[in-house]
Each structure stands twice: as C-alpha cells, then as structure tokens.
Amino acid sequence: MGVKNTATEKTTANSRWPGVIQQKKKAMAGRMFMFIALVLAWLVALTAGCEDEQIEWEIEEVPQLLVVEGSLTSEYQRHQVRLTTSADYFSNQSTPGVPGASVKLVSPRDTFAYEESPNQDGLYLSTKPFAGQPGQSYTLDIRLQEPINQRTHYQASETMIPGMVLDTIEAVLYENPLYVENSPMDSLILYITAYGEEPKDIQNYYMVNLYRNQQALMDTIDEVEIYSDQEELEGRRVNHLFFFEDFQPGDTVGLKLHTISKGYRRYMNGLENIVNQSGNPFDLSGPPANATGNIEGAQALGYFRVSQVTHARTIVKEGE
User: What is the pTM of this model?
Assistant: First the structure.
C-alpha cells in the first residue's frame, strides 16, 4: 500500500494558483479600464453638451401683490403706513413704493387722515399727531389710485390690547456662568427688574425693544423677542428679564414693551422662519410660504399692528 505524498500534492496545487490569480487580475483590470473609459467619455460628452447651454428654471409665476407695513401705538406722534409691491423670490432689487393712495384710520370715535411723504413714495404719515387708546378698535382703510392684481380697496383691523405700565426698572450686570472663552456668547448677563402693573385678566404678548445709550438693539426681525404673560410676565408687580447683550456699568439702558395680538405673534414667527431659512441656491424646495397677515378685502401681504407701548430707562450697575 503506497503512501500518498500530501506535501507534494499541496505544493503542486499551490503552484497552479498564481497563474489563475494573475489571469483573473488581468480580466478584472481590463473590465475596470473599460468602465473608466466609458465614464470619462460620458463626462466629456456631458461637459461639451452643457458648455453653452443655459439651465432654465421653472418658477411658478405669482401675481404682484400689495405689501402693507403699518403700526399704531399709544404714543403721541405721527403714525405711519408704508405701501410697497411684492417682488419675485429671486429678485435682489428693493421693492417699489406705491404712490397716490388714499389712506385713513377709522375708529368708532374718530377718523384720522394720512398724507404721502414728499420724500419717499409709498410712505404715508398721519396729518397730525395723536395717541391710540387701549381697548379701542381701529381700521386702516386703503384705496389705491391704480389697481394691483385687479384690486384697489384694502382694509385691516386690530384692537389695542391693554398691557403692563412700567413705573421703573433696575439693571444689573452679572457674570455669565455659562460663558466659555472664545465662544460667541457674551461673558455678562444684563438682569433687568421691571416694576409695573400687568393686567391679570388679559392674556398678553409683548414685543420687547432694548436700547443701549439711546441706540436700538434687537431691532431686526430675527432678533426681536416676544414674551407671553403666561411665561415671563405673569401678572406680577415685579418681573425679571435676562438679556445677553454687550452692556457696561454706567451705560443707559432703555426697555420698551409693546402689547401685540396673537395674530401678530404668528405673523412674526412666520417672518422669522423665512429670514432664517437656508440660503443654499441648490435647495430646490421652492420659495417659503408667506407669513399670514391681517390685510382684508383682497389678497395682500403685510400687517397693520396696534400696540399699547410703555417704556422706562435706568443706569446699568455692576453686580456684587
């Protein structure tokens, strides 16, 4: 009985594998070369075909609309309304003013006429100063000289909601316990104590304006803060507010509170969503939905806001 030489068989079998592997490698290399060649040829053809070709964007045409920006407050002053027209979503031009309109403000007691500014198309000012009254309803009435989207008559109505009346405020600077070096967060916290009666039977929203040495802060749409009396201002005599702003001891700080309606709060939330959306030009999701305003009688954009306003100021102190 012979003995099988397994060592020789293994050596012989193994000696055949290098040739097989080399053949497979050559075949795979050939197929890879053909694949790369085809991809390169496709890219060259695509580049040549698109060299002078303009990409046509299919954008839904939206009719031109009237845009209304107006406010009435409890401050004794000449109030203003701005009328412009909407622009295309991808336009980088300023929106033109709408001249020649008839604008008036109507309440159950009075009618206030507005006149167009001689220095700016589309800006209308009340002909005389007056102060809105808390609890009173007001209707803005607009009649255009030329129709926009086949409409000439527009209206908007709101009621001036009573709110807190500030007596005094105190402002103290403290170190920010959450501050980390080289972070965008400010190293100090401005702690404001506001003294004033806040109605307990009315659910209020407040738009807050802050001033440093008589210069407005938080004055852009994405910086505006809106408080609820169900959260920050809870019908107390004493209320505390925190701000991460760049103040120094000795600065003058001013605090102004505007009562606003729930509708205006939703409108501002919509505007903030639009402002904070991605600026990526390759985001093909389309233009954002417009913030819902209160202009009635025809399709239009914007809001006519009515607010009771209260304000106070003090000198910033350094916390102990």
Answer: 0.72
